[in-house]
Amino acid sequence: MKIGSAIAIYFIIWWVTLFVVLPFGVKNAVEAGEKVEQGNDPGAPVAPQLLKKAVITTIVSAVIFAGLYLALTQPGFGFR
Length: 80
What we know:
Distance between the termini: 15 Å
Number of strands: 0
Radius of gyration: 18 Å
Order of helices and strands: HHH
């Protein structure tokens, strides 16, 4: 696998994993018991914890990519 292909595949895996991880642990203002100010959406997350989710996404994506890389490069495994 060439480096450009590997980066592109990892990038796609990272974004898909991010969309899977984003809803975990999110509470909106109503669920958190906070008052919703006028003009704010009541469904907006109170504390989205994006840095934590980015780290989790990176770790999970690396594991998924490593499995895919091994499946594509090791003899005896693969899609052919």
